[in-house]
Write a structure and sequence with these properties.
It contains 1 helix and 5 strands. With 120 residues, it is α+β, with helices and mostly antiparallel strands. Strands 1, 2, 3, 4 and 5 form a 5-stranded antiparallel sheet that branches. A hairpin with a 3-residue loop joins strand 4 and strand 5. The chain is elongated.
């Protein structure tokens, strides 16, 4: 095991990187309930789902297209595997509630990859 001084030196670059990022990377287990920032234009298939109050089919479509929402972590997240430029390493969550896309209709819940800095 490294000496205490060596361990502190090894942790310093990680702490400096965290401070430069402006957020802390936290591990999450599958099933963990979180608050995550939802952005309708981040859907992996290009859909533009918005969170709606009910399953109405009227136009214009009125709903929440961005903001903090309750979500469930679908796959465990280990900060050691996080690569900012690779969305496949972000946190996979399921936003709960009713969502609607004008082209694809309604769905219950939306699965998305969310940047770890936007999950609490």
């Amino acid at each position: 095991a490294p000496a205490p001084a060596e361990a502190a030196e090894a942790e310093a670059p990680a702490a400096e990187a965290e401070q430069a990022r402006g957020y802390e990377l936290v591990a999450y287990g599958s099933g963990h309930e979180v608050s995550a920032f939802f952005k309708s234009d981040d859907h992996p298939e290009g859909h533009r789902y918005v969170k709606v109050k009910d399953r109405a089919d009227g136009f214009p479509l009125i709903g929440q297209s961005a903001g903090w929402m309750p979500a469930t972590v679908l796959e465990s997240f280990d900060p050691a595997g996080f690569v900012e430029a690779d969305q496949r390493t972000w946190i996979r969550v399921q936003f709960s509630g009713t969502f609607r896309d004008t082209q694809h209709g309604h769905c219950e819940g939306v699965e998305m990859m969310v940047h770890p800095g936007l999950v609490r």
